[in-house]
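User: My notes are a mess, but here's the protein and flavin mononucleotide's SMILES. Can you give me a structure?
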Amino acid sequence: MNFEELVKSRHSAVNFLENEQMTEEDFKNIFELTKTAPSAYNLQFTNYLVITNKDKKEKVKELSYHQYKIHTASAVVIVMGNKNSIEMPEAEKIYGPLKMLKIMDEVDYETTMNMIKGYSDGLKGEQGALNLELSLNAGLHAMLFMLSAKHYGFDTCPMHVHNVDELRKEFNIPDHLEPVMMITVGKSVDKVRARGYRKPVGEFVNFNGY
Ligand SMILES: Cc1cc2nc3c(=O)[nH]c(=O)nc-3n(C[C@H](O)[C@H](O)[C@H](O)COP(=O)(O)O)c2cc1C
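Assistant: No problem, the inputs look usable. Here's the predicted complex:
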């Protein structure tokens, strides 16, 4: 399937074939592609909680207005933004090895660290800014997850997360991980939702100003 076919064949699954299992290998393949997603300063904000256990999936279903496709999906994946990603030790983990291997020189490294510190302080100083940044980064990541899943023959449906406090308690999600959305994944039933109306390109794209 070429890229155009891949993009066009992704639909939000109406429902999934029950009892289709996804293996750890399936998820590993999908995440190996997903991890190439871009992120601000390459800080890689996105974490995933993959829930394949039937009883645990039912718990998510209960907390998500009983959407049936959570029951039939092979897994429901909680997409989370990691607030610790903007802390300097995390940045050092990503950039330190580049300095050590001399891919990045000392000056470049220090400049980058200073820029990240300024970015981090800015996000902490403005109400809601960090959550917005997490959603921005996790949203891009999640889209790539869905395309990667399709590439490996799996269908998806993006969903909002609901009852986040209860979800946290149920799955021991630590405070620094902010659930942003979730994705059901598995093998779609034959019925494919017709592509919903899309605005013509001219309606949502402007060149060189309004
Ligand atoms: C943030 C978000 C939340 C969504 N929540 C749901 C949902 O709860 N249930 C559902 O069936 N689809 C949900 N969708 C899927 C949209 O309905 C779907 O993407 C849209 O109708 C376009 O269809 P397509 O993805 O098949 O092109 C959601 C999509 C997004 C991006």
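The beta strands are 46-51, 75-82, 155-159, 177-186.
User: Great, I'll file this with my notes.
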